[in-house]
Amino acid sequence: MAEAEIGVIGGSGFYSFLDDVTEVTVDTPYGRPSDSLFLGKIAGRKVAFLPRHGRGHHLPPHRINYRANMWALRSLGVRQVLGPCAVGGLRPEYGPGTLLVPDQLVDRTKARTQTYFDGETLPDGSTPNVVHLTFADPYCPTGREAALAAARGRDWEPVDGGTLVVIEGPRFSTRAESRWHAAQGWSVVGMTGHPEAVLARELSLCYTSLTLVTDLDAGTETGHGVSHEEVFRVFAQNVDRLRDVLFDAVAALPDNAARNCLCTDAHAGWDLGIELP
Ligand SMILES: [Zn+2]
């Protein structure tokens, strides 16, 4: 019996008032995830919450063990993941408080392991083969629809689609970088939405990103540039309604056995060389 069916990558602001939350520690062939996982129930669905940055937010984006995080979720039975994250808006109309559900991704990270299939032998002696998965559409269409409908149901009109560019961080963009991102037509910029997305695809997990704009990015705003305090303040102001949207989206997701999206056949034709958990 799976311990969880749906994963939410987010901290205590999302699970702290659920009844009967169970904390479990999970180890993986890739090391420890960011923190314990917290198991709770939403509308009868078994959900595993994982604080992406660890309790107390001690892990910067480039130090997060993304492979361990996604593997740990799958090992508990999770097959669908909702990944909320804070982002900067790259267009003036995407101001603080905007909820954007991206449909595309640009990876501008520099030093993060992006794959499970790198020839590294696992502790059980198995070695993954080289595989090249299709990633044209990085997000789960079913999960996106559930997120969009949940936001609308809470009178929070979301932006349907757009491109999330993920930078290495932990610094924010320069004005020149930010203007360049905007000039490409990209929508929002963040530091954590990748490689979560591709690792989810490699594990045949459905992955949906929900981006909350906490600030206008440096090339779009006219003030002093993005500050850490501003990001945390706006996130805190929106955490309650973001939690409501996440919970409604969880309730609307299909049973794992009923998934019929592109995420489920990502491995078609490939011999992985390893057993997924
Ligand atoms: Zn899917």
UniProtKB/TrEMBL annotation:
Keywords: Glycosyltransferase, Purine salvage, Transferase. Phosphate binds at S12, R52, H53, T192. GO terms for molecular function: S-methyl-5-thioadenosine phosphorylase activity. The record marks S173, H228 as: Important for substrate specificity. It catalyses: a purine D-ribonucleoside + phosphate = a purine nucleobase + alpha-D-ribose 1-phosphate. It is an enzyme of class 2 (transferase). Its EC number is 2.4.2.1. It holds the Pfam family PNP_UDP_1. Substrate binds at M191, D215, L216, D217. It comes from the Bacteria. InterPro entries: MTAP, Nucleoside_phosphorylase_d, Nucleoside_phosphorylase_sf. GO terms for cellular component: cytosol. CDD domains: MTAP_SsMTAPII_like_MTIP. One of its GO terms (biological process) is L-methionine salvage from methylthioadenosine. Pathway: Purine metabolism; purine nucleoside salvage. Residues 5-248 form the Nucleoside phosphorylase domain. HAMAP family: MTAP. Belongs to the PNP/MTAP phosphorylase family. MTAP subfamily. Purine nucleoside phosphorylase involved in purine salvage. NCBIfam families: MTAP, PRK07823.1, PRK09136.1. Homohexamer. Dimer of a homotrimer. Although this enzyme belongs to the family of MTA phosphorylases based on sequence homology, it lacks several conserved amino acids in the substrate binding pocket that confer specificity towards MTA. This is Purine nucleoside phosphorylase. It comes from Streptomyces auratus AGR0001. The lineage of its organism: Bacteria, Bacillati, Actinomycetota, Actinomycetes, Kitasatosporales.
